Amino acid sequence: GESVGLHLPTLSVQEGDNSIINCAYSNSASDYFIWYKQESGKGPQFIIDIRSNMDKRQGQRVTVLLNKTVKHLSLQIAATQPGDSAVYFCAEYNQGGKLIFGQGTELSVKP
Amino acid sequence: NAGVTQTPKFQVLKTGQSMTLQCAQDMNHEYMSWYRQDPGMGLRLIHYSVGAGITDQGEVPNGYNVSRSTTEDFPLRLLSAAPSQTSVYFCASSYSNKYEQYFGPGTRLTVT
Fold it and tell me: Which of residues 60-89 of A touch B (CB under 8 A)?
């Protein structure tokens, strides 16, 4: 059942440091993964995606790593800035073609 | 382009009332979906559509209806509101399945 008042995992980093946010996914048949950023009071915003035929993909200041052996996804943010403070979600497309979201991690950047 | 728009932004309903949450996109996307987000949780899929005239259920469809008569619009109907439906509702669209989804700003619904 659902938990009321569930607390998100949190990550606190110093401005300028690198951040690594981890995600475990459930379905070994999932073949497409997306990282979203959600700021308070807003809808999720696309950051980067990766398909299962890749292990790594880089964007501007962000890198996503995919380890299919252990069903693990990570998002690395280089030189983290105060504007990066948000909740970060990983999401996987399951075999039925539906996008399933993880719980999310709250990133807090200290100036 | 306005992207994905949702109305209203806020709504308070009494138990048993019905209402429709509106969603529209101007990107000519075929794929549209509705999610709900409860405090401290990720988004859960309610219903989705792969094109006009085609809809299907997501993870948590009970208590909600959808229709897709045009490519642009994908309204979500609450048939008889319950306090358990208090949540933030997001609409999203994408070019196709397994592509980046663009999200609207959300509708915050409270059922008393």
Answer: 89
pLDDT means per 10 residues, chain A with 111 residues, are: 52 96 89 94 94 95 96 96 95 82 92 89
Check residue A1 and give its pLDDT. 32
Residue found under tokens 């996914």: A25
- Residue A29: the pLDDT is 87
How many degrees, rounded to 5, is the angle at CA B5 between CA B89 and CA A23? 50
Give the CA-trace dihedral at A79, A84, A86, A87, to 10 degrees. Answer: -50
* A10 Cβ under 8 Å from any chain B Cβ: no
Residue position matching structure tokens 């052996």: A69
In chain B, how many H helices and how many E strands? 0, 11
Report how far apart, in Å, the C-alpha atoms of B97 and of each of A84, B32, B112 are: 28, 9, 36
Per-residue exposure over B80-104, b if at least 16 CB sit within 10 Å of its own CB, e if not: ebeeebbbbbbbbbbeebbbebbbb
| B23-52 pLDDT, tens digit each | 999 999 999 999 999 987 789 999 999 999
Is A32 part of the contact surface with chain B (CB cutoff 8 Å)? yes
A71 torsion bin: left (phi>0), alpha (psi -120 to 50), beta (else)? left
Q: Are B103 and A44 in contact (CB under 8 A)?
A: yes
| pLDDT value at residue B98 | 75
